[in-house]
Amino acid sequence: MAVREIRLFGDPVLNTVCEPITSIDAGVRALVEDLCDTVAFDGRAGLAATQIGRTQRAFSLHLDGRVSYILNPEIVELTGDPVPTGEGCLSVPELWFEVLRYPSATVRGIDLDGAEVVISGEGLTAQALQHECDHLDGKLYISRLDREARGEAMRQIRDSRWF
User: Residue 59 falls within a domain, yes or no?
Assistant: First the structure.
């Protein structure tokens, strides 16, 4: 369909808890195409619906050279002890902070045919699954930072060219 503009920090849609998809129609199919088209660039690991202004529970991934998607994703398992992980976000460009993330994650949802999809992974995959599910719950990764780091993130945002 189209590559969509990425919504940036300050846009209220990024704080929206997404609604589950109850019917797979042409609008949902178009959303999936837009998510996949928009994530399919070097340096983009994942993209949630809120980041393109939509409030349905869906995200796309671009990992290991492969683009995929999932509808109604829910984290069903997180394993290991959370570890500091360098993280950035398309909606908060140019910033990079350490965030505590579980080293292994499993997400369950559905595809466009309504069939169950399970995505599991470690490392970047686990991080992306957690990051994108946070987006669908109305959270940006900077909300997971400790007070000092969050203050520094806000300073960098205020000083950025894009804000």
Answer: yes
Asked whether residue 104 is domain-assigned, the answer is yes
Catalytic residue among 94, 132, 148, 152: 132
CB within 8 A of 82, min separation 6: which ones? 100, 101, 102, 103
The CATH code of the domain that includes 41 is 3.90.45.10
DSSP letters, 106-128, are EEEEE-TTS-EEEEEEETHHHHH
Question: How far is 115 from 108, CA to CA, in rounded Å?
Answer: 11
What one-character-per-residue DSSP string does 141-152 give?
Answer: GGGGS-HHHHHH
Instruction: Give the whole-angstrom CA distance, residue 122 versus residue 114.
Output: 26
Catalytic annotation present for 5: no
Position 4 in a domain: no
10-residue block means of pLDDT along the chain (163 residues)?
Answer: 93 98 98 98 96 98 97 98 97 97 98 98 98 98 97 97 94
Could you tell me if residue 48 is inside a domain? yes
**What is the bridge-based pairing of β-strands 66-79 and 83-89?**
unpaired
**Could you give the number of structural domains in the chain?**
1
Structural domain harbouring 53: 12-159
Name the nearest CA neighbour of 94 among 161, 39, 48. Answer: 161
The residue type found at 77 is: E
